[in-house]
Write a structure and sequence with these properties.
- This protein is mainly α and 87 residues long.
- It has one domain.
- Helices cover 55% and strands 11% of the residues.
- It has 3 helices and 2 strands; from the N terminus they run ββααα.
Amino acid sequence: MTERQGTRRNTRDGDESLRGTETKAAFKTTEFIVYVLAVAAVLIAGLIVDGFNAMETWRYFTYLTIGYVISCGLAKSGSRNPQAEGE
């Protein structure tokens, strides 16, 4: 196998070719699950709690979304795609 087909790493059994990316799909991460649960909690609280109006609900929803998008960007900023480098 050539170096263009994948990155190599040493293991106990010898060299092993790596393929794919270092990051997972967004829906498979714990950050996404926590984000969905937090958004659900904010929206439910907006419906149930007195004094928690719609403007506050959507403001917190927006804050959560901005935080999640920044978190995903930071998590993937340092990762690389070995397939794209060697193609």
